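Let us practice reading a record.
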Amino acid sequence: MLQELRIKNIALLDSLQLDLSGRENGLVVFTGETGAGKSIILQAIHLLTGGRGSSAWIRSDCDQAEVEAVFFLGDNHDEIRSFLREYDLESGDECLIRRVLNRKGRSRLFINDRSVTTRLAAELTENLVNIASQHDHQQLLQAGKHLEYLDSYGELRTQRQDFSRLFRKWQQLSSRLRELQEKEQDKEQRRDFLGYQLREIREIDPSPGEDRQLVEERERLKASSTLSALARNSYQLLQNKVIEHLVTIRKNMEQAAELDPEVRELAERISSNCYEIEDLEGALRVYRDALPMDSSRLEEISSRLAQLKQLQRKYGPELEDVLTYAERAERELAELVGLEDEIDELELALEEVSTEALLKATELTEARRYVAAKLSAAMEAELGSLHFSQAVFEVSIRDPEGLGMNGIQASGRDQVEFLFSANPGEPAKPLVKVVSGGELSRLMLAMKCILARRDQVGTVIFDEVDAGIGGQAAEAVATKISELAQYHQVFCITHLPQIAAHADVHYLVEKNVEDGRTITSIRLLAREERVGELARMLGGENPSEQTLAYAEALAEKQGE
C-alpha cells in the first residue's frame, strides 16, 4: 500500500506531499479542470516504476526534479520481501522508492536508499502498483498483448519461463548447428586452403621479433666497412712508431728520475700512459678483427626479410599477427577434422531439447486453454456488472500444431486474441473491429479488476477510466471501482462525478497564477468542498441550486 507520495519540481507542480498512512484500502480520487495537471500524479508514479523520464518534465528554472514514495509491506507481500532480500534491499515493513531527474538528462533511481537500475525497479513495482492508463486501453486493442493478460490471469509466469529457457537453448543449438553445416558444405575446400596457408607459414617458420632483430643486424653489417677503416687507420697510426717513441721516452724519464727525484712523478705518469696506449692498441686490433665483413650474410638477411615481408602482406600487418593467424588456422583445421562428430552430437542434443520443448509447449497450451475458459467467464461476469448484461467475451487460442519448433516463439506456440460482442445475436469479433471508446474503458476496467484480485497488487491506479462513458454505464463503473477499493488501495483520476462521489479521499487539482507564474496545486477537500466540486463536475463553474442539491444527494448516497 502507498503510504506517502512526495513530488518536487515536476511540470507545474512546485512541491507536494500526500500522506495516506492509516488507510490500508479505499478510493483516492483526483479531480480538476482539464489541463490542471492531474496527469502529474501518473507521471510521478510512472517514474518510480522505472518508466522513461525526460528533462522536459522538470519545472522551469529548476535544476532537478524528485519523486519519492513509501510503500507499506503487509503480511501478503512475501514475494516482494523475498525480492528485496535477494538484492540486499530489505528495510523492515517499508519500501522507499526515489527517482531523481536532472537537466543533463541523467536519472538516478533508489530503493531503500540503494541505487538500482530502472529494470530492477520495474520488476519490483509490478507487484506493488498496477497502472491502467489510456495507453493501456490502446494496448488492449493489440492482439499481441492479449497473451500477456491471459498468462498473468492464469499465473503461468513460471511455466512460461521454463519453456522460454528451453526455447533459448534450442535457438542456440540450432544456430550452432547451422553454422557447422555451412562449414561442412565447403569443408574440403576450406581444409585445403587452410593447409596451404599453414604450409606456407611453416616453411618460412618465422619466430617472434625475428624481423626486428634482422633489421638491426643488417644495419650493423652495412656500417661494418666504415667501422673497419676507422679502426684499421687508428691502429696503423699507433703502430707507426708512436708506441716505440713512447717506450723510449719512458726509459729516458726513468733514468732521469734516478738522477733527480723531482722527475719521478712525471716518469710514473709517462709510464702509466705508455701502458694504457699499449692496451688501446690491443683493443683496437681485437675490435678490427671482430668486425663482420661477410657480404654473403647481408644477402641472407635481405632474402629472409623479403620472405617475412611476404607473410606479413598476406597475414599481417605485423609478424606477430602472422603467428596469431597460424594458431587460429590450426584450431580451425582441427575443428574441421572433427566437424562430423560435432554435428552428430549437436543433432542429438537438438532433438532432445526439441522433444522436451514441444512437451512443455503442449503443457503450456493446455494450461492456457483451461485458463482461457475461466477468464472468459470471469470477464463476462465483470462486464455484466458494468452494464453489459448480455456481452460475450471469448479468448481465442490458435495453436499451429504439426509445425514442430517452426513458428514457436519464446512465449510458446499459441496465438491469443480476445473476441467481444456487446449485442445479443452478434458473433464475437476481435476487439479492434467492434469496441467503441466507452466499451474499451469498461473492458479495461473489468480486466484490471480481475487481475488485481488475482495478483494481490496493493495499489491500483486508473487514469480516466471513464473515457467515453456516461449515464447508467457511468454509475456501473463507479460502483465497480468502489467495490475494488474495498480490497485494494485505488487511485482514480476522473471527470465523472459518479466516481468522485464514492471517494474515501478526494483531492482537487488546480492551476493558478502566482506572481506571474503558473503553479499546479493539489489539496485535500473537506466534505463541504467535495459537494462543491461534485456540483462543478455536474454543471460547470456556476452550478444551479438544483445541481447543488443533486451533488449533495449524490455525496450523501455514496457516503451511506
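A brief commentary: The radius of gyration is 44 Å.
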